[in-house]
Automatic annotation (TrEMBL):
Keyword Signal listed: yes
Superkingdom per UniProt: Bacteria
Subcellular location: Periplasm
High-level lineage: Bacteria, Pseudomonadati, Pseudomonadota, Alphaproteobacteria, Hyphomicrobiales
Protein name listed in UniProt: ABC transporter substrate-binding protein
PANTHER family attached to this UniProt entry: ABC TRANSPORTER PERIPLASMIC-BINDING PROTEIN YCJN-RELATED, ARABINOSE-BINDING PROTEIN-RELATED
Main location: periplasm
């Protein structure tokens, strides 16, 4: 994911205007009318402090900030919004949960609401309101936020992560497109390395990028951290097959991936060092917005994750749910803000502002204009429907969320792929860690 400069932020503002974003008086008029008819009325003198992850596509941030400003004016709610890196969102939310102060809402990653099931405001009414109005929720998104019949948060969107590649490099390697099965995909990566146009996937603590590719390989081999009854089953022949496959794949990677975070592959790809990686659409957007990278942008393609021996998609996509803490002094304002974010007049334009970086979790937005605005966007529109919850076949909840937050699967793959541990030791360590969580 990409560290963006002030210059690119200004370019993003231009892109926002080009999408026909509901802004200025039109947005404010809608917000005022909505506030009068909404099921939740913000309390007099309401103040909300909201933490979100740092944006990677500037126009998305512009759209979000425009919504915040309109909500503030329409409801009289004072809004304090600040951003943190992916890596810092969960620790800061944990501090707020433990101290009962500092935040009212946290817009975070994966199954964040499941980490604090006793500290969040139940949002059943918001989920029902939006789900009934907009065609229901995608399965994985709903599982991300639900505990039993209770909604611990609202799955605002999914950051779709798929394969970003240089079309010319793939063709030179002898492939018309990125293969859709594991064996041919490995052969592509071997050919890319041979041609000095290597692939590279994060093996460091990259919340989105590292978790995505290793879970696809693990699950694709029908290997899981836990079974449907939440019994730890990571130490298995299927896991060993997944590790062996990943090691072969990692031998084709560009050097340094073991220390990569979520921005490293963006920088390497945009600088011409990397030719195949997994990412949101932000690499393509950054290239499109930079006149000096016109040729690079035209050479970028996107592809779905390959499917493993299990025979069906096994994708871990980056859910971005929002939660409200139950110590928030203004719960009606919090619920109103969350619902306001996902109303069609806001959300479809917000998706366009995000330019494919965010994917809908409400089915009504499958036909949003962003998915046909550019052929390179279309792949990302499938992310929410193809995803599994972070728990795999297990129960979504605090334990599964902890396993993801602690990078247990990522570290198991990294230990084996780098040679730090053999397969038996890598699986045994992951097993011990998981059993401490699932006891």
């Amino acid at each position: 994911m990409h560290d963006l400069t002030r210059r690119s932020l200004l370019q993003g503002g231009t892109a926002l205007a080009a999408t026909g974003m509901l802004t200025g008086p039109a947005l404010l008029d809608f917000a005022k009318a909505w506030a009068q008819s909404a099921p939740w009325k913000a309390e007099p003198g309401a103040k909300l402090t909201v933490m979100r992850w740092k944006r990677f596509v500037p126009a998305e941030d512009d759209a979000f900030n425009a919504m915040v400003a309109a909500f503030k004016t329409a409801t009289g709610t004072e809004m304090n919004v600040f951003s943190e890196s992916f890596e810092d969102v969960q620790p800061k939310a944990s501090v707020a949960a433990n101290t009962g102060s500092g935040l009212d809402l946290a817009w975070g990653l994966h199954t964040l609401p499941q980490l604090f099931p006793t500290k969040v405001l139940k949002l059943n009414d918001v989920a029902d309101y939006l789900g009934n109005k907009y065609g229901g929720w995608t399965e994985a998104a709903a599982k991300t936020c639900k505990q039993g019949n209770d909604w611990l948060g609202i799955p605002v969107a999914t950051v779709g992560g798929y394969l970003t590649y240089r079309k010319s490099a793939v063709e030179k390697a002898g492939f018309k497109q990125v293969p859709s099965d594991f064996p041919a995909y490995l052969e592509l990566c071997k050919a890319l390395k041979k041609n000095n146009t290597p692939a590279g996937f994060a093996l460091g603590h990259a919340t989105g990028d590292a978790n995505a590719w290793v879970h696809n390989i693990l699950w694709g081999h029908n290997a899981w951290t836990v079974d449907k009854d939440d019994k730890v089953i990571i130490n298995s022949p299927e896991t060993m097959k997944a590790l062996d496959y990943a090691k072969q794949l990692s031998e084709t990677f560009i050097p340094g991936v073991a220390s990569w975070n979520d921005s490293s592959n963006n920088k390497a790809f945009l600088s011409g060092e990397l030719f195949l990686t997994s990412n949101g659409i932000s690499i393509y957007v950054a290239a499109k917005d930079d006149p000096s990278k016109k040729e690079l942008a035209e050479d970028i393609g996107h592809a779905l994750w390959p499917v493993g021996p299990i025979g069906k998609p096994t994708e871990l996509q980056l859910a971005v749910p929002i939660l409200a803490f139950n110590f928030c002094k203004y719960p009606n304002a919090a619920k109103a803000f969350i619902a306001f974010m996902l109303e069609k007049e806001n959300f479809e334009k917000w998706l366009s502002g995000a330019r494919g970086y965010l994917t809908q979790t409400l089915n009504a937005y499958d036909s949003a204009p962003v998915w046909t605005a550019d052929p390179n966007n279309a792949v990302f529109g499938q992310a929410s429907k193809r995803a599994l919850p972070a728990s795999g076949i297990g129960t979504p909840g605090e334990k599964a969320a902890t396993a993801i937050a602690d990078f247990i699967v990522v570290d198991m793959f990294a230990n084996y792929c780098t040679g730090a541990k053999d397969g038996k030791a890598a699986m045994a360590e992951a097993e011990r860690q998981l059993k401490r969580i699932y006891r």
